[in-house]
Amino acid sequence: MRFNNKINCTDCENSNCFIKKHCLDNIKQSVTIHENKFVNRYSKNQLIFMEGNFVDSINFIQSGRVKVFKKGAFGKDQIIRLISDGEILGHRGLSDAEKFSISATSITDSMICSFDKAFFFKLLKTTPELTFNLMLYFANELNHEENKLRDLSIFNVREKVAKALLIMINAYGLNKKNEINHAHELSRQDIAELVGLNSNQVTKILADLKEDNILETDNKTIKIINLNSLKEIVNI
Amino acid sequence: MRFNNKINCTDCENSNCFIKKHCLDNIKQSVTIHENKFVNRYSKNQLIFMEGNFVDSINFIQSGRVKVFKKGAFGKDQIIRLISDGEILGHRGLSDAEKFSISATSITDSMICSFDKAFFFKLLKTTPELTFNLMLYFANELNHEENKLRDLSIFNVREKVAKALLIMINAYGLNKKNEINHAHELSRQDIAELVGLNSNQVTKILADLKEDNILETDNKTIKIINLNSLKEIVNI
DNA sequence: GATTAATAATGATTTATATCATGACCATTT
DNA sequence: AAATGGTCATGATATAAATCATTATTAATC
After folding, report:
1. Rounded to a whole number, what is the distance in Å from the CA of B176 to chain A's nearest CA?
2. Residues A72-105: pLDDT tens digits?
3. Does B80 touch chain A (CB under 8 A)?
4. From the centroid of its chain, how far is CA B109?
């Protein structure tokens, strides 16, 4: 981790960033935000923060891709989110928890904007619109988590793998060749940890899906041949 | 569902209710809230709202116990929350969703306070403290959901049943005889749906736990003999 | 470019889970 | 008190999932 030239939020391209959207109404506030912003650069596969760390900041992704995960028993981790540009990171630290309940690792080289927790709280107090929209965002996230919870408790292995692929597509999209973006940055183990499986099972199901002409794999690249069939597996 | 005498929030005993805590600063507001509050009575096992219903209100439990659940494929539902006095209900409707993504049923006779969604939004806009605390609450809920997600994707059947029992205890507590409150209001199927199992599996594990002197069952009553052992199963 | 380490693919085996069938128990109704 | 329907308990069986062992492939290092 090393410091880097800071971009001013007004020049930033992440239009869905909460700060960008709700906190730049006047010049005075813009300046304060810029002064209190720390920007760090993380190279690929670097730990950003770890479960159990003291929560001292709220973060936003300026660029790059990050996986957020939780440690479980016997090294069986659970990936909670795959996120990218503009998305908020470590916001569970806004709860009464003093320590991070999650860990975060960069999947690609990433720039992370951070605010001291105390400053961010002050910002929330003085910017009701920010708080309001954050509240709505969390309500929405709760919906998603609860959907995922239901799905994972009902799905079989094949359905879980399909779900994992759709999570990846939803997070990072497909390129022009219909390949899952950054699939080669995530191992079979990562895919497994998105949906509570092991890497072996993922490999097998991917072979099955290849057999069924739903996708093609070439090393870690996953090319989607029939997205509808994939969605049908999880009943979307 | 039928209308009933309304209790004024100031006379209500639910000290952890958001309205009670954050919205009664002045008499004018108290009056407005009272005027916009609808109170409905639901008898045991009555549907309060259903997945797919148009979201028109935000609700709080004045008294009683409610289960919130989601419909899955093949009638395999997932119970999301067990809640009681003072707790907020249907708040996921605050997100951009127009329709409820969950259903809610009364476990016991219950009184539910409701506010029109539009009014509640207005209340949020004029009461930053309410919004702020709701935001913190949601951040906390997200933590819980994510913990549950990790647990359920790692636990085996025995661990899941232990988890289900602890969820019930956490929600409704134990009586003086160390029996799980309202366990007789929830079927084996309900317990199963808390953690993605079927009723058969629950029955079997309960028999095992009885064998291990961790609990005793008498019809639907579940008496906890050794709470620590139960917690150890899920590694708390 | 050869060597090594890491990850992935595949098949065989073991273990765990889900399903099915039956009988017991309890609650309700008449 | 007998009859009915519903939930629960239990064991047997079938199915699915997890683990293990081996080989193949890819990436990293020298």
Report:
1. 31
2. 766 678 999 999 999 999 887 787 778 888 999 9
3. yes
4. 14
